[in-house]
């Protein structure tokens, strides 16, 4: 752990420096917040820096280099100087007055960053689920000079997925100078820490602004409640499943607890009991545990920041103006590029909260339309090379039993509904604080997100049993975030009711108990292995790892490679994943989804098959020569050139080498005398090689501009009869060899 602490500190210091550049703007935006929105500077810096780098790269204005990053830093510094001088009275003494608050949040952020990095160190491998995809995106971005980044599994085409969250952490990786095999796990820990602190800040400030006499212990405690529920909470499934096994299966508590399987809380509808309507309903802690660096998780800090900004903008501006729709449109564009569904989700929240807080439908509509226009403008550079994958809107033909919805979200309903009753009862007769209206908007939005997949779903490529799984997953994930954020607020608002306090504590304990089962099951916490994510390659594929290291050290840019293509969720396509070098075809189902159809990826799979099937043929040349003659080598000659020129068959170079006892066929010199065979029937010299395939294979390699052919463990698994002699037909030379793993370079 001590060795890894160096990386944690460098990573934190890099983020701290970047976030300090956004502090003046954050302090101006969140003047009403008790902590001045300090933690949101980290999110703002990460996403704004990344957006600028992406746009500059898309339009080829600057390349993705440290010099470009330093230039943007310089611009930020100048902007900070301008803001500070323009608002001297505001900034005078701000650190002197608030330094304890800033220090507390920074220390808490560092503690959680370190804590989750430590947890990840017990199972750090970048393997399983969709980690290959996520890390492959990061590595492809890191190799890119300009954007959009190349799809490492579809050579010649850009990534057609919402990759902006991956871009954010690729940027921080480049800036920090740490290997991406380590920063992958640091990125997960960073999102975890940002989620906790962002949730704490937003909820505590909603409470702070709702109290007539703000008491530190109240808004501080309420913020912590929401932060824990958001970051480390689950649902009622843990209590339901353990209780069911005790009552129905007659198990003891210890037995039922030991048998509890944490993913069941995210795969409940359609699985228990088993039906043909299977769904997915994840939440942040599950994401942090399984550690896929996916868009829905990458976007958590951003959407919490958006909600904080939205509340401040709606309650500060005297009228709906550019102060609202310009930044809102920009933030929604970032959310769209990170996790496309979140544009619609938080666009809905924008409309509902605006309507509730302003009570003006036309102003809400007008500001909404302006916000959409701004969103289109800021999203345009990304959208130019992005094709949405949705195939249409469908009505559901199956719905979730209410008891299952209650097990998943009933805890939040028990917490929230008493407040909704309180709000309905009082909003006409009493002047309620704006935070109450915003919390109600969050509750309504979250509830609608649960209802919508019970009515309609977005059609995609998934089989009929999972027809509404992705729609439900994308929507209810955000519902969980909103429910968690309002829970601490509502507890403080209704804290005087003893029965409510008891009910809240019961739900809180059940939700938090999930973290025990999930962390224990996935990580074990018995053998710390460190933050380096490639132990699985070191143990199971050491020669492949050596090849990856060689490529990362010796190959610059993004030349194309070919490796065996494989099914999704397997360990195929390790090389493209770990280097960012595009291969002809990677995970088939993923490319099927991203390309909007099966035909193009399937055609590439067939082309990869042709290459390796050709390389697997028996290439032994038959000894049919009848006579020979002398040949004098000219400057620039090679055996391949001589065999093609003199014998009209480039594949006879090996026979020339055998006749002349050449130990190294590539070393011949001008005016050397060679014996070459003559009178060889062309129809039999190739032995068992089907020479009619050679031109086709060459055309495939040329089509995708392949520079390297890889042969390693997964290639042998799929093509066990690979014959190295056949690489001679392609005039390929070995540039790396370790065990049976080889990398061939094409001319």
TrEMBL record:
It holds the Pfam family LysM. The keyword Nucleotide-binding does not apply. CDD domains: LysM (cd00118). The chain crosses the membrane at residues 6-30, 37-61, 67-85, 97-119, 152-172, 184-209, 215-236, 302-326, 338-357, 364-382, 402-424, 436-455, 475-492, 499-519. Keywords: Membrane, Transmembrane, Transmembrane helix. Residues 629-676 form the LysM domain. InterPro entries: DUF2298 (IPR018746), LysM (IPR018392), LysM_dom_sf (IPR036779). This is YYY membrane protein.
